[in-house]
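retry 2 of 3: previous attempt timed out while embedding zinc ion. Reduced batch size to 1 and resubmitted. Inputs unchanged:
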Amino acid sequence: MIRALFMGSAAFVLAVVAVAASGPAWDGVRDLSDRLTGAATQTPAPTSTPTVPPPPTATPTPSLPPNPQALHRWDALPVHYCVEETGSGFVSIAEFKKLTDRAFAAWGVPSVDDGVCRGPDVQGDHVNEIGWGTPPGAPPPGSRVTEAGVTLTTYSECTANCRADDPVHLVEADIIIEQSPPRQFRTPDCLYSTLLHEIGHFLGLGHLPAPAVMQAETASCLTRLTPADVAALLARYGSRAHPAG
Ligand SMILES: [Zn+2]
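retry 2 succeeded.
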């Protein structure tokens, strides 16, 4: 699925391509039991000292909500990303980076900007690269439809002994933003709109009906999340997310 820019009627179509990870399923059950074992050994039951102070009331990190529908999401937060310096688009890399950070902040899922990517933009390196380029499968020049960006995600799906709250999780997401869209779309607002949409895919969201930012096609460069976008996000991340809706 690709986001495209329509000439004339001016519609965007954004897309995500999901690629299943080829590695083995992770063993979530063992992770959970390890944690439980560790907690038990750290807080042995007092034997004869009723005045033992209560355990520290440190605020635990809220867990992700149950995920019975196996929605794609990151299970380890914060998510990390880096911005490619290679390639050139219609704004500077500094501006591109600023808009990317702003779009992540709008979704409100804990995230870390790791700065400039250290290596090439490739899938399979478990580095989440965001940068300029030409989305694969772009329609030919002169077409009414032009892709604005694409997100390539890789996920791991549990196949045995699965935890009910984490049957699937993302392991990599790379975003390619069209570096030379039609002139009328070469604005910071349209770039931000595309980044906002693609980062929604980066976070695991699929397409939603209009007027959501996550709609597959749009005639304008939407820059604000709608209640539908927020609901889709919260279904995945619950109280770990603080979207600006
Ligand atoms: Zn899309």
